[in-house]
Amino acid sequence: MNTPLRVLVTCPPMIGQQRHLHPIFTGAGIDVCWANITQTMSEEELIATLPGYDGWIIGDDPATRAVFAAGCAGNLKAAVKWGVGVDNVDFAAAGELGLSVVNTPGVFGREVADIAMGYVIGLARETFLIDRVIRAENGWPKPAGISLAGKKVALIGLGDIGRQTARRLLASDMEVIAYDPAYVSGSIAGVHAATWPDQLELADFVVFTAPLNKTTRGMFNKEVLPLLKKGARIVNVGRGPLIIDSALVEGLETGIVHSAALDVFETEPLPDQSELRSFPRCIFGSHNASNTSDAALRVSLLAIELLFDRLGRPSTRQG
Question: What CATH code would you report for 109-284?
Answer without folding.
Answer: 3.40.50.720
